[in-house]
Amino acid sequence: MILSLDVLPGDGERFQRAQFSCWLPDAGKPVTAVIIHQHGCTNASPVKHPPVTGDLHWRALARKHGCALLVPMYQVAKGCDEWNNPDSGSERALFTALADFAQRSGRSELKDVPWVLWGHSGGSSWSAQMIVRHPKRVLAASFRGGCHKQFGDPAFRAKFAPVALHLPLLFVWGKRETVPTSSHHVSWAPMNTMLRELRSQGGTVARVIDPRSEHDCCDSRLLVTSFFDVVLEARTARQELPGALVDMTSLQHRETKDANLKDPAAAWLPTPGLARMWREFSETGSLHPSGTKLAQPVLNISRSDAGHVRLTWRIDPSLDGGLRAIRIHRDGKPWKEFTLKPGAFLATARDSTPEELRQTEAVDDSAGSHTYELTYSDGAGNESPPSQIVAVP
């Protein structure tokens, strides 16, 4: 189920319009958390970067853990601070949207469950401020760049560190952001200052450098969704995360029993498995799982009043593999393929679904009766088992 809502500014609020999209997992099960996917500065473009409420990869994470996916998109007249400062009205707009979606969906818990925050650039700044304002509501957060004003301010860092010290955090920066010629280099030193202060106190925070990126998201979602997955898994099982330390320079794993848990040169990862993914992503800018058994897709078929065949599907990509191609066979032969170009990243610069994979259905208006089956492949080229064969009703 996808719900949408437009929220207009109230008196004194600075944004022009807020558009919210919310995807809810299978009915009959309570919502356990809300994953808030917050874009960066400049006005949001739902055409170029559609909300991830329609993204099969992010849906797989949300469905696995019974989470809602919530995407706010703001339009402003001038600067980013007209929405990414919660006092500008974006905090009020968020709570308005949560209450509305809770009421319309009949999932009253939606307005009270905790949050998982993903922010890009200005969205990271918003997320950091929301952690300070609502620390008990946040389960984990990932920042893709940004936060130079917040982390560059000693007073803000003094407020952020105590509430975020034991919150699983992942800072993702692009390698080209680390050099002074980048227009986004302004956030590099403040982020590292915040990282050192948290780690020197034993904070549960990691920094990963995407070797292929400047300020865009590229394939970082593979690591981020896997990070959120293990955090949510532990919460569901009510278990403590074992934790793992990695050297941010050598990329080597450190045994936590021997390492200094407050060493600012070491990043904290929630599990040793995530530490291995962190190293691979740090070296390659992607993840390439091998031997992964992908989930079988589900293909549904119906016939319209006009006699056309309509195919829809459910795909749950692996979180560390993502989605690169969808293939439909008709009568045992290739019929349609939706696939990324060779070498293309698995997401847009703002971490939305690439245009090639936005198709949600296929229509066959040919005469005659046919059978159909579907497969998909992940970013590493691993192919899923085929769906069950379906026939025209």
CA-based gyration radius: 21 Å
What is the CATH architecture term of the largest domain? 3-Layer(aba) Sandwich
Low-pLDDT residue intervals, each spanning 5 or more residues = none
Termini Cα gap: 25 Å
Helix/strand order: EEEHEHHEHEHHEHEHEEEHEEEEEEE
* CATH homologous superfamily grouping of the largest domain: Alpha/Beta hydrolase fold, catalytic domain
Share of residues in strands: 25-35%
Q: How many structural domains are formed by the residues? A: 2
Structural class: alpha/beta
> Which CATH first-tier class of the largest domain would you pick?
Alpha Beta
Total beta strands = 18
> Could you describe the largest sheet, including whether it forms a barrel?
8 strands, mixed
Number of helices: 9
Shape: globular
Plain-language structure description:
With 393 residues, this protein is an alpha/beta fold. The chain has two domains: 2-284, 3-Layer(aba) Sandwich (Rossmann fold), CATH 3.40.50.1820; 298-391, Sandwich (Immunoglobulin-like). It has nine helices and 18 strands. It has helices at 56-65, 81-84, 90-105, 122-133, 148-151, 154-164, 188-199, 221-237, 272-284, and strands at 2-7, 17-23, 33-38, 67-75, 115-120, 138-144, 169-174, 205-210, 244-247, 253-254, 266-269, 298-303, 309-314, 325-330, 333-339, 361-364, 371-377, 390-391. Helix 1 (56-65) links the parallel strand 3 and strand 4 (67-75). Helix 4 (122-133) packs across helix 6.
